[in-house]
Amino acid sequence: MLTTAGIAVGYVVAGLLLAGPVSFLLARAGWPARAPGPALLLWQAVCLAAGFSVVGGLVLLSVAPAGHTLTEAIPTWFGSLFAGELRLPWWRWVCGALAAAISAVLLANLAWTTVLTVRRRRAHRRLVDLLTTPRSVARSERPAVVHVLESATAVAYTVPGWHPRVVVSAGLLDLLRPDELTAVVEHERAHLAARHDLLTLPFQAWASALGAVPGVRAAARSVAELVEMLADDVAAGVTGRSAVAAAVARVALSPGVVAETGPVDGRPSGAVPRPGPGAVSADPSGPSAATRVRRQLAPRSLPTGAVVGVLLAAFALLCLPASLLLIAWV
């Protein structure tokens, strides 16, 4: 039989390692670009396992005297609390308070980030409808409707939600060849179809709440880059890899290229709607642009055995918090 202290400390340490050095090293690894789908699954498992492990370990230290398993101890603990019969050392109360505080901060931050994102997305959509002109862009199968922004700056992004928008600028239309423009539109439509905004939202909230922890902000950046790579691969299936690589390179090297925030050419953006918190679009001039071009021109898939290993690691991490419910202690 395991002792409660050993189990709890093991879970807390595992959670801190996942949120810190493990996330930091995974964000710096090169292999996720070769398998962005499995890498994103692993990132989700790391995020969930980190939070649940820290909270679960603290809960275990708090309720351990009330039973021999977590499923037995928690109901007994609350029953004794409401009956006024609960007597615990001060440090067990501190552990319980920490678990409650961490859970409340993470859940409240996720809820607030979601509300703020939806609110800003709605306002951004109204601005897009006011300042852009819908236009049909020819595709191989059917036309795609995009909202054209009268700006010389090359920019493309999506505003997801119940009424999504794909926004491209007039500068982008002038810059790209037809196949490259199709690649950009397919890239943005892939974001909408896969709801990449929902995938990245928890990581944005995680970074907002725990940004001081090394590796947390790196995780958010890595996930944002991986969804761009996934969208690139979808677009490449329609237009070919060379068109995607050329489009990314042209936009990245174009003068006055716009980032997600900040002025254009050192001047305020004025009425030009930017990709905001509710949009899905990475800065095409960012550090991932070269990687995105290279992986299209010289694709290197991760070996099947390695992909299986990544999936097994994700499964094991997802099982880590659940295993706490099954462990018995003395």
TrEMBL record:
Keyword Nucleotide-binding: no
Region (Disordered): 262-290
Domain of life: Bacteria
Entry note: cofactor: Binds 1 zinc ion per subunit.
Cofactor annotation: Zn(2+)
CDD domains hit by this protein: M56_BlaR1_MecR1_like (cd07326)
Transmembrane segments annotated in the record for this chain: 6-27, 39-61, 90-116, 302-329
A GO BP entry: proteolysis
PANTHER family linked to this entry: POSSIBLE SENSOR-TRANSDUCER PROTEIN BLAR, SLR0241 PROTEIN
Name of the molecule in the record: M56 family metallopeptidase
Organism name: Nakamurella flava
